[in-house]
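Repro:
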Amino acid sequence: MRTLLGTFVLVATLLATAATASAAGTRITVSDSEFGPMLWGPKRQAIYVFQRDRFKQSRCQDECAKAWPPVLTSGKPVAGKGTRKSLLGTIRRGSRLQVTYRGRPLYYYAHEGAGEVRCHDVDLHGGLWWVIGADGKRRP
């Protein structure tokens, strides 16, 4: 009976842990770059903001969103090293959640590899794209 109860507790714990892990959101971190400390996504993907976006509102749709995929999350975004938890948030993008930082929607650039920053202060799709620091402000 003890073995059965122990097995039940172990299985229940594993299931609860798996449910929590699957609900975990995208981890955002701050790390160095040629522009100074900036936000990075999983697998060290550079994160950008779009000049034309409004507070908690994305203006990057269709072709723009193909070149600049939104930083999506399956749960509450996770504040990694150097990131301010209080500045992280989300907005709805259809049925999905897009991560925001200081109210600004976040994006990746589709044509970059890990650790690359190719499009800081670049004018594409009708506005400038910037990397941002831990304070949520664009880097110089």
